[in-house]
């Protein structure tokens, strides 16, 4: 009895150490504010013109070309394809982790030749042919395999959320690029109209110069303005070509085969209600991915701590063995064996402790990453809310500047034709009008860009049901996840 007690002392010590080392500390979370700082009444009460779910948020811009491009990108964009492949890989790992919890059955056929009493009872060489079926099963008494499966499942959840995040990123980038291209088309049309106006003025000035009414310097001034405006046309065309090539990559097509006809006119500018921070954080797929990664790291701390517990393996084997192939399946050559093995490492040079410390460090890193993701999400929403508010005020002021510049340009042209003002005054008025009209167009384009960025910051929508929040992991005294 005393010998039995002594033999169980190492096992008892290992179990005691395992119990002491199994407490898992959960990293502190970020306190969610009740309201966004930039939220005003129109942000919380306004509703979009068309209520769309998460998948169709871009349709609020009411642009069929944009709808078609995003549909094409969903099928062929390489970033989405890579994210989908990583999700498939993660799900395969879940299946593998689940398979480790199932009985393992195998079959084998083999032959060997050797000498020894274990073969023929003497030292003469002999051949042994054998065929057997084996079964093994690890008893998951302390939950190591279950926690490994849970961690793999949480990794798959994170990959699924990252796939949604990638889809949202591609959709937002495509929408921003397309809207930039449309803004470029509008600006190009504006500058071309200005160049045409300068060309008309040049023809008028040349006739007046030929009639002796104006000096040659007036003609040169108009020629300078016309050439500078034409140079702007080429610069804008170059920018448009680059945007078109970027769209080709986003939709998964070769830039050489992709062409998008010029489109002018304004798209709809939806008003997006921001909602509340808690809803936004639940909706954002990148935050959900970070949360799942945090829980997976927490589960892996439990996996590392189960290394202090013994492992229990049940085995069974049955088959036939004989000296000749023809004797292989005779009843007299049958053999079977059933066994159980419990093992626990007593000394490993600190390997288990290092594994636990590494898993805990990964948990701390995942907690910091999750907090950073939450803080970034809140910042992105605040950035775009403030941008839209200030851009709206800027747009109103710029609209007044455009109206005044157009009025001044019209008056200057009339006075110039009647000979009351010089050509310099007319050119200054036209340059000022062009500058203000282009600035107004850029402010409007910035409003659309900020709207897309706000939708992305809100998680891809404003009326969609939020992602189902992951339940927090509760850790028992043994380090098991409930």
Automatic annotation (TrEMBL):
Which GO molecular function annotations are given, in alphabetical order?
efflux transmembrane transporter activity
Say where the protein is mainly found. membrane
User: Which keywords does the record carry?
Assistant: Coiled coil, Lipoprotein, Membrane, Palmitate, Signal, Transmembrane, Transmembrane beta strand
Query: The organism sits in which domain of life?
Result: Bacteria
Name under which the protein is recorded? RND efflux system outer membrane lipoprotein
What topology in the membrane does the UniProt record assign?
Answer: Lipid-anchor
State the family it belongs to: Belongs to the outer membrane factor (OMF) (TC 1.B.17) family.
Q: Where in the cell is it found?
A: Cell membrane
Coiled coil region boundaries: 70-100, 371-398
Q: Which stretch is the leader sequence?
A: 1-25
GO cellular component terms, alphabetically, are:
plasma membrane
InterPro entries, per the entry: MdtP/NodT-like, OMP_efflux
């Amino acid at each position: 009895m005393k010998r039995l007690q002594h033999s169980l002392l190492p096992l008892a010590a290992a179990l005691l150490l395992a119990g002491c080392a199994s407490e898992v500390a959960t990293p502190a979370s970020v306190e969610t504010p009740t309201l966004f700082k930039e939220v005003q009444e129109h942000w919380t009460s306004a509703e979009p013109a068309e209520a769309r779910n998460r998948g169709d948020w871009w349709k609020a811009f009411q642009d069929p070309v944009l709808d078609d491009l995003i549909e094409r990108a969903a099928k062929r964009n390489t970033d989405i394809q890579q994210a989908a492949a990583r999700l498939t890989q993660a799900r395969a790992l879940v299946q593998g982790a689940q398979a480790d919890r199932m009985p393992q059955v195998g079959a084998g056929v083999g032959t060997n030749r050797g000498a020894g009493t274990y073969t023929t009872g003497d030292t003469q060489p002999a051949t042994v042919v054998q065929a057997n079926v084996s079964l093994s099963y690890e008893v998951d008494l302390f939950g190591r395999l279950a926690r490994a499966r849970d961690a793999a499942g949480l990794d798959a959840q994170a990959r699924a959320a990252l796939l949604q995040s990638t889809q949202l990123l591609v959709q937002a980038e495509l929408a921003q690029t397309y809207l930039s291209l449309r803004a470029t088309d509008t600006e190009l049309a504006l500058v071309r109209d200005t160049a045409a106006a300068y060309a008309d003025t040049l023809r008028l000035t040349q006739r007046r110069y030929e009639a002796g009414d104006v000096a040659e310097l007036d003609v040169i001034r108009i020629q300078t303005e016309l050439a500078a405006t034409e140079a702007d046309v080429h610069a804008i065309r170059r920018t448009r070509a680059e945007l078109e090539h970027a769209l080709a990559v986003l939709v998964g097509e070769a830039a050489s085969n992709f062409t998008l006809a010029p489109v002018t006119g304004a798209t709809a500018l939806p008003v997006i209600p921001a909602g509340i921070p808690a809803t936004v954080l639940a909706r954002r797929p990148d935050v959900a991915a970070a949360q799942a990664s945090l829980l997976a790291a927490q589960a892996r701390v439990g996996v590392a701590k189960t290394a202090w517990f013994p492992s229990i393996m049940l085995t069974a084997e049955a088959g036939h063995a004989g000296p000749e192939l023809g004797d292989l399946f005779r009843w007299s050559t049958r053999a079977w064996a059933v066994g159980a093995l419990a093992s626990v490492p007593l000394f490993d040079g600190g390997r288990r402790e290092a594994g636990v410390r590494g898993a805990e460090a990964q948990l701390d890193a995942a907690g910091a990453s999750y907090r950073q993701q939450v803080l970034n999400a809140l910042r992105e929403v605040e950035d775009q809310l403030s941008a839209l508010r200030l851009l709206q005020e800027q747009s109103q002021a710029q609209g007044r500047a455009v109206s005044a510049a157009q009025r001044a340009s019209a008056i200057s042209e009339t006075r110039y034709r009647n000979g009351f003002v010089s050509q310099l005054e007319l050119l200054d008025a036209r340059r000022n009008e062009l500058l203000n009209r282009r600035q107004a167009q850029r402010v409007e384009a910035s409003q659309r860009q900020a709207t897309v960025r706000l939708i992305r910051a809100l998680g891809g929508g404003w009326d969609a049901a939020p992602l189902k929040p992951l339940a927090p992991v509760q850790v028992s005294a043994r380090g098991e996840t409930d």
